[in-house]
Amino acid sequence: MKKFMLLASIRLTVACLFWLTVLTFWGTIYQVDHGIYQAQDRFFNSMFFLVGFVPIPGGMLTMGLLFFNLLFSFFVHYQAGWRMPGLMLIHIGLMMMLLGGFFTKVTGIEANVSLFEGEGRNAAISLTEWEISYSDELHSVQKYQAVDLDDLKRGREFSFMTMEEDTDPEEEVRFEVLEVLDHARGLRPDPSVEASGLSPANSAGFVALEELEKLKNPESLEPGVRLKVSGVKGVEEIVLTPRDQRPLGLELDDGSGRFLMLRKKRYELPLFMELNDFSRSYYPGTETPSDYRSMITVHLSEDMQRHVVIKMNEPFRLNGWTFFQQSFAVTDDSEMSVFAVTRNFGRLIPYWATGITSVGLAMHFLQMQWMQLARKRRRKS
Amino acid sequence: MKILSLILLLGFFTAQGAEPAAIEQPTKEALKDVAEIPVLFNGRVMPLDSFARLHLLQFSGRKSFNGESAMAWMGRLLFAPETTENDAVFLINHPELLDAMDVERTQVIEGKRKPSTRRFSYLHLEPGISQLMEIARRAQQMQSEDNEALKGKEFLVEREALRVYHNILTYRALSQVFAYSRELPGLVIDHPEVREALQLEEGDTTFTYLDLRSRVGGLTPLMEQAHKLGGPETWNAPQQDAMTLAQLMYSFHVTLSELPLTLLPEAPHGESIWIAPMDALHSRDGDKALIHAGERAGLLAQAWVKQDWSAVSEESKALTEFSRSRMDHVRETRLTGKEAAYNRANYFGRAKIFYIFAFFLSFGALLSGGNKLRWAAWLPMLIAFGFHVSGIAWRIYLTARPPVTNLYGTFLFVGLICLLLAILVEFFQKNGLGIFAGSFIALTFLFIADRFAAEGDTMHKVVAVLASNFWLSTHVLAVTTGYAGVWIAGVFGHIWLVLKLLGKDKATLEKVRLPLEGLLGFGLTFAFLGTMLGGVWADQSWGRFWGWDPKENGALLIVLWTAVIYHARVAGLIREIGLAVGSIIGCIMVMVAWLGVNLLGVGLHSYGFTTAMARGFYGYIIAESVFIVVMLLGLKIFQNESK
Predict the structure, then answer these.
(1) ipTM of model
(2) What are the chain B neighbours of A341 within 8 Å (beta carbons)?
(3) What is the sign of the dihedral through the CA atoms of B328, B331, B332 and B334?
(4) Is residue B110 part of a domain?
(5) What pLDDT does B9 receive?
(6) Cα–Cα distance, B419 to B643 (Å, whole number)
(7) Which residue of A has its CA nearest to B529?
(8) How far is residue B523's CA from residue B485's CA, in Å, rounded to a whole number?
(9) Per-residue pLDDT averaged across B232-252, rounded?
(10) A188, A263, B211, B525 - which has most CB atoms within 10 Å?
């Protein structure tokens, strides 16, 4: 019970709110030198972060504590609290908000799709996540297996299965992770040093990785992976980087070929989208865009298709996925439209939370003012 | 034919160095009609009056020149530019730039040497323009290689050079917009054959491009003969004159085309392509109405120089009518008269005057405790309020947008909301405190808004992502209302601390504390609502509710800090002094969210911010910190003495 009381303590609320204020301020200043994404990782998406050797509570831990503080205070302090309905609503709304944020963090997807006029796609490419794809085709579009880079840690083993459609899948290649770097560059062999044993396989001739300092923008990070492989002829080790440019061809023990590639993660979309036309307009005599929009044909199935317009502030939504007009590029003979694509099944939770908390705040504010006036009137009389 | 100097013609002023003929100030009627002429500038159609104000502000940092309205001064620059050569309109903030230009730091204005001036005339700067151009060129090159290359303090002069050079180029370009209607200097056409070809009358001794343009076709036979003959050495005198004149006309046309006063809409009922009046004379489609409008614009300039004010009115009305008839589908074109009237009304300037009265009267009421002074303070405050509301209402009407689309608009709006909240406090407290605080804040914010007005057009077009009246009127209005609540609570926090230090009794202090708490709650409610609505807008536009962008964080800081104050108070961690200090820190949080995050230069909401404004921002934070420390020390000493 004492622990519950401690978790429900208003002093804990003050501590959490104060620490969040500090983190928010610190994290904002930090963005100047390190960029928004590193600030997010360090201050807001972390349980702890290090300042020198000292671990400091991160935003995730603070917000988690605040959530439980709100939850417990709800039971401890408001058992007879119906005379303060505004306060109750505020705390319910805030709990929803924190839960919604957590839900989005865990389940949300952020990717984008770039289309030239006349081009179509059914997959979105992640902005920051990477995967190792495995296929029996050089340019695997339809049939491939993939493993997320985020899931790979040093020493972890994983395998890909047989790809023939009419046979039961069996493990055909096995890998062990030797090294994973967030931002790295491939190194070619030093010609002055004589090679001993088999060199690691790589389509661009890289034999090792060098770790680089992290960049402000995580979209520009180029990871590197070194894998130990078994079940492949003449190869014991593999190096993969985004600079490889073409997939690495492997010959399996049975003589068949497979292709391996490190690439930005693909998300399959519930539709095939085709860009018919992209148009933009500017305020006259300036380069300030007043509007830009994309005319899309959306193929929901083989027989069902329809025209959709996506423009600034007017996204297109379908089954939890949302497509936003993000930016564009112009080449000599064509225009390319870039769409931000998100999937967030908890999208509406913050909307509800905002509504409930705001109503609660307004109710509480008015109630307090009313009580103050009544007290004043009583004092006068 | 004699041409004294082709260079003179294609150079700057036509009568440079000569004593300019004085021109009387135009009549009010003429000035009003000229002021209403529609111009396309920065993507929006505005009256020539707004164009004039923006440019004079850009050049000199002032809205008028020596008591002369911006429109009247712009009229002189456009129509009789030689009369502006001696006007000290170029603001130079860093005198080191003058040294770099090899120009004296002092200048003679109206026979008097003025050592402390920061504004210089074109004639004073003219000898150093080549050096200025060189510095600006190098600075531009550095900036194009690395956008942040000129950010350091050591490049103050280079940044200033870029600004001043741009202003001088604009000034020179504007002075040439109506050159086609002015006399071509040193041009003498004396050969009878050429005069006959041009159908000149006997008394025609001075010529303008506008006159010659329609006659120059008469030279075609002479030019054809010259072409047939071959090189210039084979031409006779009339052929030579004809060829030279044609070349002169062509050079004039090429050099002075595409000047920056886009006054006439090119396409009837079509795209918004506006062109300078001289370009209208050479309409590619042979658009007769457009050519005629270009000619009338030339006649307007000539009428101004002749001081024929009724003709000025007539030509101005004709130009306005022409643009409106062509651009009737563009709302702003129809509203230029109203915008010019709004400019003339100077609502916010008038509001400031009455706020000053209200402030001093309410201060007197607070000191004396007198009811008469308090009632007297209501009147100027309500008048000021009327002007303030009218100004904002006009801006909403003219832009067809909610009142807060830029930093300038937010200061006007937050000032007004603070005043409304203060009126509410005064209504309940009846002690002059509301009027005192409200007039002080509104006045301060109107002065700050003036600083932002100097940055450019305050009714500019918004970028595509902001072009949503729904979100502008929900998120932005809510969050700025939250700023207002927290800000005015902070002002009451200041007052509470001062009164406490002065040893006022508990009842007096309670009259400040109670509204402080209420206003803080009001601020928290709206700051939260606004911040979260911002999240909803971000989700609608970019697909994410929250991204820890600096502006989002700034708004969140206000919400978190206000929540900290309330919970700390309930938990008994702070008392009245803590509440007052906390509310003042709340003011700092508002400023951080409002302006401070723009200094960071990162994120989706990063707007331009000048060094002077940054200095003001840091100065404010230091001043507040010093105030808090002094007050707390004072209270400590006061308490020790009481013991």
Answers:
(1) 0.83
(2) 543
(3) positive
(4) yes
(5) 45
(6) 40
(7) A358
(8) 4
(9) 86
(10) B525
